[in-house]
Amino acid sequence: MVQQQKLGRFKRLLGQTRKPNTQWKPNYGVLTQPKLQPLIVDGYPQFEKPYDPALRETPPTQRKYRSPLPPNMIQASRLSEDYNEDNFHELQSKFQFEVKGFFPEKAYQAEKEVFDTALNLHLVGWLKIRTTFMLGHLQGDTYAMSYFKKYLEEKHLSPEAGTIEWVHVFDYNTGLSTPLHYKHLFCVKDWRKYRTRKAHIMSMFEKWQAFGLEYQWCQNSMKVPLKLDGF
Hints:
By secondary structure, the protein is of the alpha+beta class. It has helices spanning 2-12, 108-120, 142-153, 194-223; strands at residues 39-41, 44-46, 92-102, 124-129, 133-141, 163-174, 185-187.
């Protein structure tokens, strides 16, 4: 019955219905073989390459590259009796800091001054300086770290660079093992696209506007005299 329906359909629609060719793509059922296709790497098919001794992927000696061994970690002594004024500079320290304030001109001048100060003290780590805040993680000898900490807390920043409101130093640690985790000092730049920066600015503006409305409502509510029952 099914065969008669198919034959009738083919006879009625000979110009539109194509007769299936079972020899072009045979159906093996459960024993279907996998599709033959080359290996594709980065969008390019990788076919079998002819033998060429000049294009060997491995060196002639069949040796694999081995990265150099990391330097040995030198553990710092934890005994305070081992240090005095002569060798106290050998201790390595680290800390993270957060600074709130206002730094105009996209914080270019503030970034330059803070980076130059840390670089002159031979500190390593990273700095992230924006218009309203500073973040950083620095490492170096104990004397240099104490000088930089004092530089932040005493707000030694030029008026052109901006103003510092408050400083928070945390994760202060002394007696690090050498070599340190960072090898050089660098600044984290703002690589956001214009669309992303605009969306962030609009969200901050909405928060500031909501805060201003709440502050104004609190000020107006305090001016209204309280009405107490019985007086």
